[in-house]
Amino acid sequence: MWWLLFFLVTAIRAELCQPDAENAFKVRLSIRTALGDKAVSGEPAKEYRINKVVFLWSVKISPNRRGILISHVLLCNITQRVSFWFVVTDPTKNYTLPADEIQSAIRMNRNRINSAFSLNDQTLEFLKIPSTLAPPTDPSVPIWIIIFGVVFCIVIVAITLLVLSGIRQRRRKNKEPSEVDDTEDKSENTITIENGIPCDPLDTKGWHINDTFMTEDERLTPL
Amino acid sequence: TMRLVLPNPGLDDRIPSLEQLEVIEKEEASSRPKWDNKAQYMLTCVGFCVGLGNVWRFPYLCQSHGGGAFMIPFLILLVVEGVPLLYLEFAIGQRLRKGSVGVWSSIHPALKGIGIASMFVSFMVGLYYNTIIAWVMWYFFNSFQDPLPWSTCPLNDNLTGYVEECARSSSVDYYWYRETLNISNSISNSGSVQWWVLLCLTCAWCVLYVCTIRGIETTGKAVYITSTLPYVVLTIFLIRGLTLKGATNGIVFLFTPNITELANPLTWLDAGAQVFYSFSLAFGGLISFSSYNSVHNNCEMDSVIVSVINGFTSMYAATVVYSIIGFRATERYDTCFNQNILTLINGFDLPEGSVTEKNFEELQQWYNATYPADFAQLQFQTCDMNSFLSEGVEGTGLAFIVFTEAITKMPISPLWSVLFFIMLFCLGLSSMFGNMEGVVVPLQDLKIFPKKWPKEVLTGLICLGCYFIAFIFTLNSGQYWLTLLDSYAGSIPLLIIAFCEMFAVVYVYGVDRFNKDIEFMIGHKPNIFWQITWRVVSPLLMLVIFLFFFVINVNKELIYSVWDPAYEEFPKSEKVPYPSWAYGVVVIVAGVPCLSIPCFAIYKLIRNRCQKQESQQGLVSTMSTASINGDLKY
Fold first, then answer.
1. Does A133 touch chain B (CB under 8 A)?
2. Is residue B214 in some structural domain?
3. Do residues B428 and B52 lie in contact, with contact meaning Cβ atoms separated by under 8 Å?
4. Is B207 domain-assigned?
5. Contact present, B125 and A98 (Cβ < 8 Å)
6. ipTM for the complex shown
7. pTM, rounded to two decimals
8. pLDDT per residue over B309-365, tens digit each?
9. What does the entry list as the binding residues for Na(+) (chain B) (predicted)?
């Protein structure tokens, strides 16, 4: 079908469409990459024609211009890569439409163009037209804060449980030996030490009254 | 036998005799903590020894020092340096049944400084180590999303391209340096506290507190998970890694021996240092853990088993890490090569598929010859597999940059990311248990806190204090501070402490007495191998490594790597000298532990002199305390 192609191309005024011409854009198709092994040699021609329709459609959507037909889209310099240059002319085919308009039209409809032919920004490249990258979808609360909150709550609960069980254990330990401790303390307090030698406590061992020692009460003989 | 022992009067009064040991063990059963079973003890020791260094330091050393040939110095030094020191610490802890401060002050009061030095080092290492765990937690929290946040660059304001800093470096670099650390361009630019890092730091210290709240009573339970999970994850990664394309490239690169490296003294030095640090010796934690053992526990078998496990883990982790690195390098190489092919195709508008990997070279040359002017305009990248394999594969760079990038290229990336960071978390946490033990027990022995205070309060105060000090690592310059501490707090002081430990046990405690103790504890005397290594070989190796380190580092200007987008060769890190005040920090960080040994010895000697004078006066002026009727009368 290549002869049809050449007929179309030569029938149109080729001067307006040149590589690096004013208002001309280069398009690069990576069909092999997009379709993988399903791409066969006949595909490039088909894609090329389809793309002409697509360009027309996208330019039609451009608000200021009306009445632009497929024949107004000029293609040139088709290579085996598959890449080509195109310009869009006005209905009189005298001059090309400004690059800004084409650029904004394509930019706005890039997604539709891509999705219509299962291509993406890498496999259908419009050189010099920067693609708008999709902004990432940020959830309202970052996921990491949720996970952090979960882990942190678990840890705080664990700390509280351990501390409380420790306090309970200590209270139980304190209650049991406390009765035993008291009696031991009493006897310890009463052991007096003189020069490192403990004296026998006078009030726990048997003691005798020394009769010669008079108590205060008995000093004065009763009348 | 060498009878070279320093005079040590009063040693028998300070330590329990062998006959008393079994009695003491029964008495202490209620008051002193002890292990529920042998498995807990082994898992805790293995967990303490096996840490992040096994995953991100050893593989790098292995690969950069001759691959398979590095095993030779590593294994030799493991046997003559690592195992004897480990056995020594286990045995002395089990014999004297005290933490590090208690053990050294029992051997001789003037040697208390060794225990204090261990405490300082454990404290400083614990500070920054837990910050690394906080970073691991940050990555862990962010792993529960697909695609992973570090797989693509964020978009700039126009939405026309990526943020410039990210486009010039890579999405993983940008995520680490900008979105995690928000790093400044020098250590002097402190910036402010990064709130997200602070949250993760809080979480890390709380988790540590939960696990160490009651000492080994709680850590003993935690280690069932933290010490075993890393091995499970490593095995999963090994299986996954070996099925990836290019994994064998990495393993071959790692283990290809280069025998000429053995002649390089730096190889032996690095091997010795790695063995030493990977065993977590001289931190005091191992002595403490051993002191909770029963008296007749076979510490000789324990030390051999722990050493073997540690060495095996290093090699196992190296295999896993390099299989993943091989995969990543192959991916990068393929991408680079395909990019070059595309450049050639686009440059000359050739049909797709006409240029493949096989004919790329000849086509490239043909076009260069036929259309030299057009060809000169094309820019081709250099794709070198070896350079991809040896990129940034050490330390935090390995974990947070190289590995995370490799994970983004694997299918079901969030799963691998979660597993990887859980593994790092467990490795780091189990090492932190040993650090905490090395700080809490000495503080208890030094009676800094009242005895009445429960252990929960003590551990809580220490965790809180360390948490507040660690705020410095959440600043913009935090990572520079961490590197500073890592290089100087955890290196030279440990060597000196280990040398002093060996010297103290062999020459102050007396190796003959030590041999008898071990014979009592495990039933047979240590054989000639242990004698030679304890008395001569290991201390000599410590000294040699220390001298080498000292000589190499003392004259070097201290430099560090800085992430500066304004640097011409960005994304390469710029090597910048430290500001002058950083030298002061280094002196404090490395000097305080080292100097505490001689300073305490001198302080003790002076106090002894003064006490001797006082006790002579005391004989004369003791008051006679009379008492009547049981009442004391002064």
1. yes
2. yes
3. yes
4. yes
5. no
6. 0.86
7. 0.83
8. 999 999 999 999 999 989 989 998 999 998 888 888 888 888 777 788 888 888 888
9. 47, 50, 54, 278, 310, 427, 431
